[in-house]
Known about the structure:
Elements: H1 8-16, H2 49-65, E1 72-78, E2 85-94, E3 98-104, E4 110-116, E5 122-128, H3 139-149
Antiparallel strand pairs: 1-2, 1-5, 2-3, 3-4
Amino acid sequence: MDDDIKTTAELIEGDILPRIHEVHADPEKCTTPDCVPDRLKQPVAGKSAAQWAYERLILYIRNFEEQLDGEHEVAMGFVGGGAGVLRIEGLGYYDPDIVTFYGSDGTGARTQLIQHVSQLSVMLRALPRPSADVPANRIGFRLAADLENA
Length: 150
């Protein structure tokens, strides 16, 4: 039982601020709110469903990329369909409820997925980088930096 005494303001803030809870096999994996960028700690009430999904996807993509070696990049597998895989090269949202993934498929063809937030189901995958001459693309870190600077 938590014996901390909280003010009314702290209780209200606790109800409107986003929360994170994860358990991993690796005990060193950071799963506390301290691991979340400050921008994501803002109250959810002022964000559209699209912005909220976009910001959380960035966090998941960045965390996934932290686990990759230099030979692999993040890609997205389409869940529930035979459309294949999209190498994530960009991510955006359109208020109030659309999230868009930009990239290329396994053949190198330009690909864009436009998804309603109510249908959002993303499987992150590691794909070998397309060329040994070019370093692996780390889109999650660029997206997170953009989020922090916004």
